[in-house]
Amino acid sequence: MDTPEQQLLSVVIPAHNEESGIAHALAVIGKILDGCGMDWEIIVVDDGSSDRTFDRLRELAKQDARIRGVRFSRNFGKEAALLAGLNIAKGDAVVTIDADLQHPPRLIPEMIAAWRQGAKVVDGVKRSRATDGALTRLRAKVFNATLSRLGGINMENSSDFKLLDRIAIDAITRALPERQRFYRGLSDWVGYPHASIPFDVEERVEGQGKWSLWGLFGLATTAIITFTSAPLRIVTALGVMTMLFGFFIAAEALLGWFQGRSVSGFTTTIFTLLIIGSFIMISLGIIGEYIAKIYDEIKRRPAYLIESTVGIDSTSS
Prior knowledge:
The chain has helices spanning 22-34, 53-63, 78-88, 108-116, 134-151, 166-175, 183-189, 213-227, 230-258, 266-299; strands at residues 8-15, 39-46, 67-72, 93-96, 121-128, 162-165, 194-200, 306-310. With 317 residues, the chain is α/β, with parallel strands linked by helices. The protein has 2 domains: 6-211 and 302-310, Spore Coat Polysaccharide Biosynthesis Protein SpsA, Chain A (Alpha-Beta Complex); 230-299.
């Protein structure tokens, strides 16, 4: 095995409209890496920014050849940016971290120490989200709890702040062919020895958060559908509930008929139609989401397209 001095650490940073803060982020991260006793590279993936993020990256790369980057042809999303970074990274280990420094870079040495002690995946686990609003914390709690229960993977307080050994990176990028990806889930699903390091979410240094409510809903849908078929079982459960409800209504109607009671039936009929119609639409919606994901997979379009690079050969994947 190579000695620590010969090992390479890659840091992958997805970036979208981070022109105002990317220089500061790279300076802070680079300073931390200089003290880690390893060779290092930083790979910034510009996810189709509409500002001058990639121009700033070009300038920084001229000053330090260890800084590299790619620019997507359009915005493909954070999951695609993480995949691109992992595909490009050459390190024996790779750290994924956000460009806004809400993931504290000072914990990277601790991650390296855990990795050298045998962990193949080192998870940054959110201990405190004091910088997030109450709605954001509630949303994250519901999402993580739902996915943990339905998908059978531990998503409690999970984040994209991780260190992965080369064996885990190769498993995620080469052995798993799906196009619809959820990085946090995949890094847990691959197994291998895990270690956890708690951290408090920091304030953003520059700019504003990029996640919209609709974007988070899309990520949650992808995560649940790609990791569990439990929602499809809900369709079966709704069918059983409808059948039981139908038996109850039929029994009540027959009982009234035998007892000679007149049964108006209007309210009951409307109520029954509303329930059955709702169940049908919910079921179609759930099935439709799975079909849509299957359709996306079988098209086998690339997860991203690269428009420009600095220090890296241009590829698509």
